[in-house]
Amino acid sequence: MTHPSVEHDLRALMARANQDWAGRLQPKAEPRTIRWEIDGGTYFWKIGSGGVTCTGPGHSRCTLRCSREVLGKLARRELPFFLALWATGDVQFEGDFSDAFRLGYLFLGDKRNHRIVFLAHCFLNMNTRFPEGAEFPGANVPLLELLLQSEVGIVQMPCPEFLCLGLEKAGWGVGSEAEIRGAFRGVAETVADQVEAYLGCGYEILGIIGMNPSPSCGVEVSKGKGTMLGLGRDTSEKAESGVFIEELTTLIQERGLPLPPVFGVRRTLPGEGGLEKQLQQVRERFGGSPQSPKCIA
Fold first, then answer.
1. Is 98 helix (H, G, I), strand (E, B) or coil?
2. How confident is the model at residue 292 (pLDDT cuts 50, 70, 90)?
3. Whole-prediction pTM value?
4. Of 72, 106, 140, at which residue does a domain stop?
């Protein structure tokens, strides 16, 4: 037994699920069938590479049960789907919990905007800085406030020097260049994995922000890179990226992914000044984008 209002509301939900299918909603698993049981009526959806479509009866991986009233609220966005499924019990579910989570992403109604930046570790945690290199007690609050006001998500990249050389940099220049690069590449792999996952789900990565002139996370310039790699004693600034940024950008390109904007923001040292110039660098980088964050356009 079917009902016109149920079919109407299911079509509305299906259209919503298919709206952004080309981007963030592409399925990450094999095609599957969803069975709806609504006030005595049974309906089937197929979720596959072409989006969500109606299909005939068949084996289903999961079953959703709710009333016509609840379905109408879901279709009108009066009731968040995942909350109805997971929290309130208005939608009952049978099947694998992995399917329950995947279904929740079909009907996202929260406030996320799918726009993020990747940020060098010590902008958020000055405790990993070199001796006398921490201008702030904990984090670069002015820079973070600028990013937070821009309504972008901030992904803190791991500190490769902390992970590979130790908190006090005891491994600085100890290993060979190949050994240190290999260790840094391993850390960069974890970030490349995140970049790939976000891009694969349709997120916009506004930038990968390094810290100039770090020998690890510098982008346009680095300082002391040769001493870290055990190649010499020259500590002057060089017009080249740090080791971590080199490995990360190489990995992203090797995976055939579009390379997000990669740029460095110059660090400031205690008593050095230049904070406003540092912030202006960020404003200028985002200011030219037609979808730039509202606070820095």
1. helix
2. very low
3. 0.86
4. 106
